[in-house]
Amino acid sequence: MRKPLNVKGVGALLVCAVVLSACNNDAKTTSSEQAAATATASTTSKTSTATTASTKVTTDVIQKVEYAADDAYTDWASANPTTITLNGAGATIAGKGAEAKDGKITITAAGTYAISGKLNDGQIVVNVADKGVVRLVLNGAEIHNSTTSAIYVEEAGKTIISLPEGAENLISDGTKYVYPDASTDEPNAAIFSKDDLTINGSGKLTVQGNYNNGITSKDKLKITGGTLEVTAADDGIMGRDLVAVQAGNITVKAEGHGIKTTNDKEGSEGYISLAGGSFNITSGEDALHSSGGLDVSGGDVHINAGDDGIHADVSIAIAGGTIDIAQSNEGIEAPNIVIAGGTTSVVSSDDGVNVSDGSGKAENEAGGGGPGGGGGFPSGDAGAGTAGQGGTAGAAGQRGAGGPGGFGGGAPGASSANSNLKLTITGGFLSVDAKGDGLDSNGSIVMSGGTVVVSGPTENNNGALDYDGTFEMTGGTLVAAGSSGMVQATSDSSTQAGVLMTYTKTQQAGAIVHLADSEGNEIITFAPSKNYQSVFISSPKLKQDASYTLSAGGTSTATSVKGLYDGGTYQGGTKVVDFKTATMITWLSETGVTEARSGMMGGPGGGGGGGMRPARKQ
């Protein structure tokens, strides 16, 4: 089980607004979204000062990231640099501020230092007592150290590593460090800085962290350019307080985390901000892991993670860019998550998007319904299963007698939800392919814009939608397919209509679901990528007190995006049911409108309903 997340003061840190630039550029933004953005803009002072429009955000938790003039790459030759020419065992130095002894080159004064050549087993040390700014220009440098960091910033106001165009550089350390005593455990990365560190330019830097981390800053780490290839025995790129990327091409292969912050002190938690650049991250643990907040407002992010794809202990905001999480345990996880823009794709072996404080649910979840009635909650908080044909109803938390048909007990009500936990979707395109829950909130969900496509679980102990509080749908397009044992629709408090269809038999992957109004106008055409037994649909095109037809199979001439077809001509399908949306949320079966069930509904299945199942990791 994951240890509880540090959610101190999270109520005051709710992610509650959207990216202004995303709203301004999205022609489909509703007036309510614009009003919300305007209202928030007038109340928050935490606006990013980064130069790109996509980073102009207005949320209560997106941290102000400021870039100084020297964070950008400039011509270094005009700075009258000291030159350090590495020659295998040592170096030749021309200029002031540095000295070489026994393979160690020590820089003791602020200034610019141009480094080239190869150091077989040595170290660049920055030790500037007056906290000045040191610029290391790696102009074709290869530095190896077998027993400690190859570049070690012991003290400086800020160190800047500049990568000139066309220059290729390699930094590596050994697999075992030698420390002066047992109480010393740093430096512990191939490039290690105790103070602020910036990497800029357009050249290439390869970092091999064979002992522990690749690049570490114990303060703030900013990347404004360059091509970085980092491999690490543990974490790839780490900043204690901040990792902010404005531009660059970054590849990380790490046994631990890919990009990480560690400061968990209340009020000054670490933060990750990705405003641009391209990322290819392969990690044994979380690819992006923040001890505080995390935002993505630009860039192209590709992730293969052994654990979570994107994780933050306080909040995550996705406002722009492209995110492709091709492999993960849980795709995106934090106590508060806002998706306001961009294109995000998630593949997960557990939950796709998970809003959780990491403590696990206080109660066990309902078992899937089966013949003779499904299992409910042992606490009695949920309803008993209904009797199936030839069977008896299963009491809450107990197994019903055998027989076909029957629905399991419902979920606990909103009283069991954590009011501090929320998933907010206001824009963008999100697709989720999850073996666990598709969208999962231990609190509530609010959706007012954007498009969300969920190909959810095939097993009845998870659902395409899973929330403990409410799911208020006021705008946007949502289609979620999956199993039926834990199925949920949006809440009755929603202002946008929704339809939940539950089938008696499993439908095959790729079989189209087509919903059209009485005049044949398309509402949704969707082909789930996995077998499914339920589909929930909500769209601005779907109205209350109107007639519709749900069809199955057939083909569409449109091109699908994550199974969702837009436009084109649909033909060849078979009508499943005609119905009228008499209520805001309509529950359907093949025979027509059915009675709505609060919370989760057990679905038809085999083997007699299943009692409780253990609480799982969130």
TrEMBL record:
<feature type="region of interest" description="Disordered">
    <location>
        <begin position="349"/>
        <end position="413"/>
    </location>
</feature>
<dbReference type="Pfam" id="PF14262">
    <property type="entry name" value="Cthe_2159"/>
</dbReference>
<feature type="compositionally biased region" description="Gly residues">
    <location>
        <begin position="600"/>
        <end position="612"/>
    </location>
</feature>
<feature type="compositionally biased region" description="Low complexity">
    <location>
        <begin position="349"/>
        <end position="361"/>
    </location>
</feature>
<feature type="region of interest" description="Disordered">
    <location>
        <begin position="595"/>
        <end position="618"/>
    </location>
</feature>
<keyword id="KW-0732">Signal</keyword>
<feature type="signal peptide">
    <location>
        <begin position="1"/>
        <end position="27"/>
    </location>
</feature>
<feature type="region of interest" description="Disordered">
    <location>
        <begin position="31"/>
        <end position="50"/>
    </location>
</feature>
<dbReference type="InterPro" id="IPR025584">
    <property type="entry name" value="Cthe_2159"/>
</dbReference>
<protein>
    <recommendedName>
        <fullName>Dockerin type 1</fullName>
    </recommendedName>
</protein>
<feature type="compositionally biased region" description="Gly residues">
    <location>
        <begin position="366"/>
        <end position="412"/>
    </location>
</feature>
